[in-house]
Design a protein that fits this description.
The protein is of the alpha/beta class. The chain has a single domain, classed as Rossmann fold (3-Layer(aba) Sandwich), CATH 3.40.50. It is built from 6 helices and 5 strands. A 5-stranded parallel β-sheet has the order 2-1-3-4-5, with helices on both faces. The radius of gyration is 15 Å and the shape is globular. About 35% of the residues are buried.
Length: about 150
């Protein structure tokens, strides 16, 4: 089974790759969401992990769901409940908030990849996912930033 990790953070990419390899998955890490979208047709993936900044997640979620129904784990900075709900409505199967437990992620990712493999993850979803409202998603990040930097 194969997983793809999409994150611009090199240290997190290495950590996630180690965790997924411990779960028995082969890993294809990338730092560029656009290259993932362009290369999707030549890639067979059973699990997708998006660990992108909040602004990129808003764009990436609907695009990811248009090209795959593979289980999707989203890793985000601190977000409020409304932002989590928006991520789930946009197509996330699991939303993790930093800091997250690598041990729990290893178990969750292994199970989700098996489910993705079983449901033929390469079939694209044909219906458009409702766009995520920017206000609800970004508000949690802005609130935390305001708290941290005031």
């Amino acid at each position: 089974m194969k997983a793809i990790i999409i994150t611009p953070n090199g240290a997190e990419r290495i950590l996630l790759a180690q965790v997924l390899q411990q779960a028995g998955l082969s890993v294809q890490p990338t730092d560029n969401f656009d290259s993932f979208v362009q290369g999707w047709a030549s890639t067979s993936v059973d699990l997708v992990i998006l660990a992108l900044p909040a602004e990129q997640l808003q764009m990436a979620m609907p695009q990811t769901r248009l090209i795959t129904n593979a289980p999707l784990i989203v890793i985000a900075d601190f977000i409020n409940d409304s932002a989590r709900v928006a991520l789930y409505k946009a197509g996330a199967d699991l939303v993790l908030v930093r800091p997250y437990s690598p041990r729990l992620l290893m178990v969750q990712a292994g199970i989700m990849a098996q489910q993705g493999y079983a449901r033929s993850a390469q079939q694209p979803i044909r219906q458009l996912v409702a766009p995520m409202p920017a206000e609800s998603f970004l508000s949690g990040s802005r609130q935390r930033s305001a708290t941290l930097y005031s």
